[in-house]
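Mods, move this if it's the wrong board.
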Amino acid sequence: MTGSLELSFSARLALFFFKQLGHRMYSPYLTLPITRGLFIEGACNTQQSLKKATRWVNTADLANVSTSLVQNIFILAGQSNMSGRGGVTNHGQNGIVNETWDGTIPPECQSNPNILRLSAGFTWVEAQEPLHQDIDLGKVCGVGPGMSFANSVLEKDPSFGVISLVPCAIGGTNISEWVRGGVLYNQMIRRTEAALQGGGKLQALLWYQGESDTQTLEDAKLYKFRLKRLFKNVRRDLQSPTLPVIQVALASSLGPYKEQVRKAQLGINLPNVRTVDAKGLPVGMDYVHIITLAQVHLGQMLADAFLQTQTTQAVLLPIQTETTQTSNAPKRCSNFVLDVLLGPFR
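Not the wrong board. Structure tokens:
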């Protein structure tokens, strides 16, 4: 819909929900092989079949994706809402999981020759949703904030150069699983070091995690300590003591201790750590994963927070970027539509 780009975020969300209520789109999740070459996948469109055309490009043609420009490397880490579940629906019943991704890629998340992704095989490929399809294995991945973030940065600063994303997020993980020396932490460091081998600059860590830590009071109480330790360790091991960290404060939870974890996230007082507050972004029918258009909005918020770190050479103190909030509870689809439609009359 060509006019959708001019609609407000709330109006687009309302249209999205009406579309979903009017008909369901079931699409198989496709996994493409990882190879040693550079490949560019064709975009999916739910109005067509989900066949993906793959164009193979010799690595000698990397100049075609502007790698002569400065590569700006960003780590994407955390759990499922960073990995991306936008557009993923569970059609299973009686506890049986049967998830599919609807294949919808918003305009803000379309591929761009100046946005690359480090594949599971440590190969730079042109980035395309789902960014974590070969990283967050065993899950059905959908739209996350990464592509919206990258496109937003390039839109606001066309001279920024090539953006190189390093996906590392794994769904369902507790922050204790990201401890220094653990499998997930080591993989993140190893992938980032590999990304830096070809040159470029490590620009920031984008971190969205914590839903799993809301399940027990002990994990919630320890969250702030563990989070600060993680950020310090990443900076030390990557030899980047002032590395900007843009973290996301929770929009949803898996347990009853969400506010304790959010308080920990919002209370981080490390230099060069900025917090984007996802509270109020609408979640899907599982009450946990934010929907596609919310991921688009989150990516733009992350981009704004990152670009603010580029406006000064001074060490930045923590700030929070918040969403508009009308309720303390995550919004289900039906409630959010009612709020949009009835808001002017309340």
